[in-house]
Specification:
Radius of gyration: 17 Å
Largest sheet: none
Number of strands: 0
Shape: globular
Order of helices and strands: HHHHHHHHHHHH
Length: 198
Amino acid sequence: MDHDTFWQLVDDARTRAGQGADDRGAQDDPLPGTLTALLVERLAPDEILAFAAVADEMSAAAYAWPVWGAAYLIEGGCSDDGFMDFRDGLVLAGRDVFTRTVADPDSLAEHPVVLGMGGGGSGWFGYESLGSLVGEAWTRTTGRDDEEYYAAREAASSSRDGEDSEESSSSDPSGESWDFDDEDENRRRLPRLASLFD
């Protein structure tokens, strides 16, 4: 699956989900179920596995210290697992937000949900977990269980040429790290987010 097809599916699901497509914290969050249904409707099982592989690529592309720093400010702290969830939420935010954030994480200060969180709202940006959402689509399409989904993903991953996603996820994030608890450094590197969450 190419990146354009991947992002078209995400953006089509966002359009179909309508209002509320950005807030992962809403009790009636419409996007995960909408994306799952869209994958079932449009893709064969092997294409769903290909969608999962591209989702992993996107998560790896956002595996950078500046993005982690943004997540840390927005969420009031951010563990390894929390950063995985944050990147899944970033993918669900759509291609434009994803691309802009990877290039300039401070641009998230303009995102409506992030603005709401900065004002003490109940919204949430991250999502746990995109892999499970895609797995649900695969199991619904095939009638097989989660265990078989993960085995199929592993088989598809080992048969693909290119990067080993496990290897890339075990390396350090790209970019320059800093102490996310250093307020002066946060203001220097992510001034809009630091101001919003100060």
